[in-house]
Amino acid sequence: VNYKPDGTPAGEWQFSGTGYMLLVHEEAGIKLSTGRTVLDFDPAEGVFRTWSEMDEKAVITSLAYYQGTVYAADAGSRIIRCLDSGGRETGRIGASDPGKGIPGFVIPSPFFDVVMDDGLLWAANTGRRSLEQYTPKGEFLKSWGRSSFELDGFCGCCNPAHFLLLPDKS
User: So what's the pLDDT on residue 162?
Assistant: First the structure.
């Protein structure tokens, strides 16, 4: 069900499967991840159509957009897939590469968020209890967070499970 700004129902969008993440962007349109498939919303017909389909291991849990690329967090494969405007994979971010200082994602459950901020990609590395920052081309920049029960850390097996960045950068 989609809603109007006042909270009243405006209509219903049909798709099969479980929806994990809805990306709404002026340039990218409306994309919906449903496990191993990313659907694209056709506003003229009011339906979702398959836009990109991954291998059987994939579980796409989060989507972000920047300059013609959709970044799809794949909890099943523990990578971020870079998808062009046609839904074709053009690259991968976050695979372990000690030579480049990339620790690799440890994703013990289907919680793997990505957010684009000022041209930089932030990703939750839930098994390492941290947030990691990458360039759009996949260069690892930094990691933030620690395993702790204190307010300045993340606890449990899979945190930060979800995050967002506010306009004031907090």
Answer: 74
